[in-house]
Amino acid sequence: MRQDTLPRRLVRRWLYPVSWAWILIGLALFLRMEVDERPAWILITLPLVILYLVLEIVLPLDRRWSMSWRNLPPDIVYIVLAAATIGLVSAGLAMASITISGEAQGPARDWPLWLQVPVLMLVFEFMNYWLHRAMHELGGRFGRLLWHIHAAHHLPRGLYLLMHAVSHPLNAIIIQGLAIILPIWIMGYGPEAVLIFLVVNAFHGIISHFNVDLRMGRANYLFVGPELHRYHHSAEVSEAKNYGAVLSVWDQLFGTFVYRPANYPKELGTDPETGMPEYRRIFTVLALPFHRG
Predict the structure, then answer these.
(1) 149 Cβ neighbours under 8 A, 6+ residues apart
(2) Which of 205, 245, 206, 208 is nearest to 225 (CA)?
(3) Residues paired with residue 24 on neighbouring β-strands, in sequence order
(4) Who's near 241: CB < 8 A, 6+ residues apart?
(5) In principle, which of 124, 156, 235, 278 could form an S-S bond with 267, CB 3.0–4.6 Å?
(6) pTM
C-alpha cells in the first residue's frame, strides 16, 4: 500500500492553491508590463509543467498509470507523430487566437476585462462540452467519425502528464478552431482576456491528466481537475463522463458530472470489446478517421 507521507499530504492539500497563486502573480505581472501576450502564455505555464513532471515521477498516484521504461519507446514515437504535432497546432492556434483578438472588432471589444473573461470561459466550455460529448455519444456515421478522431486520446491504459498532448491532429483543429478561434473572432475579446483564458485552460488541461494525488475539494464544483478527469478516462463507459475541459458547470447542468472524492476508476482506457486498435499501433490509430464503414 502507498504510504501517506508528508510530501504526499503537502502535494494533495497545497499544490493546487500554490499553482493558482503562481498563475495569478504571473498574469498580474505580464498584464501590468503591457508586453506581447504570446510569450507570456508559455512563460507562465512552462515552470508548472516542469514541476509537475518531477512530482509525477517521485510521487505517482498509481504506478499502473505512469509512463514506464517498457512503454517509453512507443510513447516517444506516438508523441513525435501525434502529441508533438498537437502541441505545435495547439500552441500555434493559441498564439493565433491572441493575434486575432488584437484585430477583432466584435461586441465584446468594449466590455471590461472582468466581464470578458467569464463570458469567454463559459462560451468556450459550452461549445467544447457539446463537441466533446458528441465525440463520445453521438451515433451514426458522423458520430463514429468524431469518435475515431478523438479515440487516440483514450486508448492508453494510463493517465500521465504528457498524455494531455496525446491526440489526433484533427481533434485539436476541431476543438481549438470551433471552440476558441471562431468565438474570439466573432466576439472580439481583447488580448488580455484571451491570455488569461489560455493560461487557465493550459493549467487545467495539464493537471487534469496529472498522475499525482492532487485534490481540489469544493473547487471540483467549478473547475475540472484530476479527480474529475480520471473518470472521463475510465474504461467503464457508464462513468466515463465529465466532458468539460476547464469548468465543470455544464457537466453539472446536463447530468454528466461524476465526482467521487478520494476514489478513482479501477481501469483506464477503452473497453477491449469495442475492437479499437492497441495504443502502440500508431499509424492504425491515426488512420481511423479515414476508414469507411
Answers:
(1) 135, 168, 170, 171, 174, 288, 289
(2) 208
(3) none
(4) 231, 232, 251, 256, 257, 258
(5) 235
(6) 0.87
